[in-house]
Amino acid sequence: MASIVAQCHYIFGLRTGVINNICYFDEQTVIFPCGNNCVRYNIDQRWQRFIPGSTEKSQGMQALAISANRRYLAVSERGEKGTITVYDLQHEQSRKRKVLSGGEVPVLEFVSMAFSPDSKYLIGQAGAPDWTLFYWMWEKQKVMASVKTTGSTNPINQVSFNPQDNTQICVSGNGVFKLFRYAEGALKQSNFLKLESQNFMSHTWMSEERVIAGTETGRLLVFESGDLRWEMSVTTKPATQEADRSDRMTDQSVNQSNIFVLLSSTAKSEGAAPARMPRVTAITSYSKGFACSAGPGTVCLFEKTEEKDNYRKTREIRIPADPCSNEPSHAEQQEMVTLCISPSEETLVTSTDRGQLYSITLSSAEMSKGEQAHFEFLSHSFHSNIITGLSICIRKPLIATCSLDHSVRIWNFETNVLELHKEFQEEAFSVALHPSGLFILVGFSDKLRLMNLLIDDVRTFKEFTVRGCRECAFSHGGHMFAAVNGNLIHIYSSTTFDNLLNLKGHNGKVRAIVWSTDDSRLVSCGMDGAVYEWNTLNSKRESESVLKSCSYTGVTISPDAKTIFAVGTDCTLKEIQDCQILREVAADDVAYTTIAMSRSGRVLFAGTSIGTVRAIKYPLSTQKDWIEYQAHSGAVTKMVITFDDQYLLTVSEDGCLLIWKIIDKEGRSLKRDKDITYAEEILITKSDLEEKNQIMMELKTRVEELKMENEYQLRLKDMNYNEKIKDLSEKFVQEIESLKTKNQVLKTEKEKQELSHQEVMREVVEKHSREQQDFESTSNQKLMLEYEKYQELQLKSQLMQEGYERQLQAMEDSKGRTLEELTLFYEAKLQEKMLMLGQDESRQQVREFEESKKQMEEDGDREIQDIRIKYERKLRVEHEINLRLKGETGVMRKKFSSLQKDIDDRNVEIEKLRVELQKLRGVIKSLEKDILGLKKEIQERDETIQDKEKRIYDLKKKNQELEKFKFVLDYKIKELKKQIEPRENDIKEMKEQIQEWSSVGRMEGELDQVHKRNTQLELNITELRLKLKATDKEMHKEMQRVRDVEALVLRFRTDLHNCVGFIQEPKKLKDSVRELYAHYVQQSDVVDIVGVDADIQREYSRQREHLERNVASLKRKLAKDTEVHRTDNVKIMKENVSLIKEINDLRQELRLVRTQVHDYKSQMGINKKKLSSSDLTGGGLVARLNFEEEAERIIQLQRVEIQRLKMQIQGQVQVHSLRPPSSSTKLPVLTT
């Protein structure tokens, strides 16, 4: 039997906390960490390939980096000794190439890495406390250099290579921005800036000299050659203070003349909280500019401007709100962690701190200038917290998961997509899918909820009071479900929702439950070290196993329900059967957290607290017979095997869902017992269906309207096009005529030009041939003469050279002979003198002789030199003459070649003219073709015109039909208007009544009409009462008749009974029947009784119904009229109250005016007495007179107003006295 193994198939999730956690491998493939693996995900085809992380004492991934040529991937992992592993991505399995470490330097982790532009070197920034930067030649695992980049209090956030230079490195962090250069085997700092106040979160290289860095306060600082040039803000708020910023930059020892502060840069207001400043957590460059994060959920695109060294913000891209969340704005508050642009710069991808991946096409973002650009999910929405629940169903390929991020998600493991997801107010602890896949059970902190899985939503339809349900499970049949409440297990019915059983027995919290295949058993384990097997029919414990030293975390049961497997905190796997632990398998000091067994019973899968998954062969052996797989970066929380044994599903505390393919060692899938066909049914509520149908109907009507509108538009367009066709046809006809005339003109011109051109060509050819012959003859003569001169000069130079050489030889021979003769002569003389003279004289003579000898030698040498110079000069002159002659011959040759070139040029011109002639002929042919084409086009246009005319005829027919249809519709509209007119008249009457009621003058007439109506109604009531009395009398008469008829019937019965006594005597019976007939039956009764009674009855019922209807309508009318009277009385009373108050106010004003007038009069009298003298000016008197007249006029107006109000009050009182009293409200007392 082949052993069973598991293979990673698909994973949902993103590992947070990893620096640079997404990068592009090619245009369609991205790489990101998930669990303890790196995933190569193809965006278009949606397949995944896995790069497994190392399992050797690793504490998790810290950072990723991809080389410039996209071939190598570096993964740093934390551990007792931090390592960097380089993978070859071009290899099929992404094989491991090299493992780098800090060597002898103790390094726990590498927080940031980067490849050089040529991918040969790698830098890695070690973490605290040393913060050492390593520079490797990674293929040889050789540390080229290392340097300490910062102190223990200033952490480093990012390191990078210059994209054009392998030796220059940029390091940024909290208060750190340094450039290093590798030279002479060491890394040396090349810039020195004091930037302690800035926390640099990220940076990117824009060119060989320029770096842009983003800070925690939302500032973008641009450095060139290590010096700060200018800064700006990612926000778009206007207020900017240039002076403060320049002062701050001078404190940082930056040259003021090199600073160009961007106008869009902003300064934060004094009262703004620093926590609300947008942090530039990620930044990346591309050919047009750069993209950077600008606070929660926002990315800004900056592009280069035409001005040098400037950038402007062109686009702002946001994360959209999540419609499936209870608080949609939470999605917009995610912080960007990494930004990455595809190699062709088509797509921007970002990862967030909540483990989500978003993407956007940059071209679409640029096109939608007027609208807000939004990110879309790169693949799906992932869990962002610990996954606490996992469940599957039988009838559908669905997976349900719940998490502490308050969400429940439904995945499809066949298509590898997210089907549904919904966020709730509370945390979800457990989840269970119904076997049908249509219902889901979710345990929240406050309640256990049973929900429907609709087509696009998850809706609650039943709640159970089970608080903090950490475990729940449906039975295999789906008719029951179990829910854990602390140490209790409740079993409910799925159909009636009744609590069937309560399983009590555990002393600690229950951590896992599992149903047997036939649903007759339920196995549970808890923190109290107990494993119980319950009978689900009578709630009895069938078996138990208690081990208090172990706190169990997971349990499963074999397919035959005879064996139980449990795992817990004692790092062992226990096989329990018949209340006994048959076997314990140690786990190498690793705690198992969950366990699952395949339906075939051949293999057990166990999840551990370090995130690994183990495949353990069954039956169990005492030896360590398992295969371990690195799966998650956190403890495995739940594990499930699908019902067909094809997939293993695991979830973990790292928020990832991992789907494993279960295969044998040969790579084949396991054989299924039977093929499973999944259901395709879905749930939808009636209201949603009706709403969708309504929307469909509305859309259909809209489509019909659009069709009609389009047809109308088409008709209009056809008419316009017909007009245009007519215009164009006329225009084209005119153009054709003009072209014909032009063509004729061009033909005549062409013929003329051809003739003139032929004449010119003939003349040019003749002239050229003559000139060519003349040039050839003259040049040949000149060449012959020059050649002869050259021969003569060459002979002369040879003869002269030979003569000079002979003369030189002779001179040298004569010089040698004269020297010998002179030496012999002087030697003989010297001997004679030596003999003749004494010793002193001989010495003197020897000296003299030597001097004379020297002088003679010098004179001979000088003469020889002069002769040599003389002859060399002559030789040089001859040589120069020879050279000049050679130059002249060269000039002649050049002239000859230039003449030859002229001849060739003329030939070329002749050829060009021939080509032009051919071109002109071609143009003529093309024009003829154009004429033919235009004729064809005219013919086609005529045909199209005929087609259009046919179309117009058809459309006219349709128009006639539509006019008929319009006539019918107009008739219907008229009928509808006739129906509407009475209602409009009623509305007008109502409006008139309202207007009449609004005016006080018409109210009295209306009241009279109401009184008349009341009297009329009283008369109607009296008439109806009389009619009612008459009907009562008739009813009594009818009742009396009924009683008489009943007495008659009774008598007839007794007589008939007596007659029946003669049943044996036919003659007596016949006689008695005749007597009965003669006594009880009359001829008129026989004829009229049936018809009369029926008519009376019908008339009676009709009259009665008519009277009852009249009475009911009169009652309603009376009630309505009384209500109208009451409201009118209240309204009039309120108006009276307001008028009386107004009268009182006016009376008070009148009193005040009277007192003022009295005061004015008294004052005037006093003034008259005092100012009776003659020196009073005329102007003062006029003023007083005017004042007195004004006062009199005001008093008169007040009196008129008071009189009018009195009249109005008397009229109101009279009206009020005519009406019956409606309420006991008293008017306020008039104050005089």
From TrEMBL:
It holds the Pfam family Beta-prop_EML_2. The keyword Ligase does not apply. The keyword Coiled coil applies. Keywords: Cell projection, Coiled coil, Cytoplasm, Cytoskeleton, Repeat, WD repeat. Residues 689-756, 903-1034, 1097-1163 form a coiled coil. It is found in: Cytoplasm, Cytoskeleton, Cilium axoneme. One of its GO terms (cellular component) is axoneme. Transmembrane segments: none annotated. WD repeats lie at residues 380-415, 503-544, 629-662. Residues 388-662 form the EML-like second beta-propeller domain. PROSITE patterns: WD_REPEATS_1, WD_REPEATS_2, WD_REPEATS_REGION. InterPro entries: Beta-prop_EML-like_2nd, CFA-57, WD40/YVTN_repeat-like_dom_sf, WD40_repeat_CS, WD40_repeat_dom_sf, WD40_rpt. PANTHER family: CILIA- AND FLAGELLA-ASSOCIATED PROTEIN 57. Associates with components of the nexin-dynein regulatory complex (N-DRC), a key regulator of ciliary/flagellar motility, and might act as an inner dynein arm (IDA) hub or linkage. May form homodimers. Associates with components of the nexin-dynein regulatory complex (N-DRC) and the CFAP184:CFAP263 complex. Belongs to the CFAP57 family. This is Cilia- and flagella-associated protein 57.
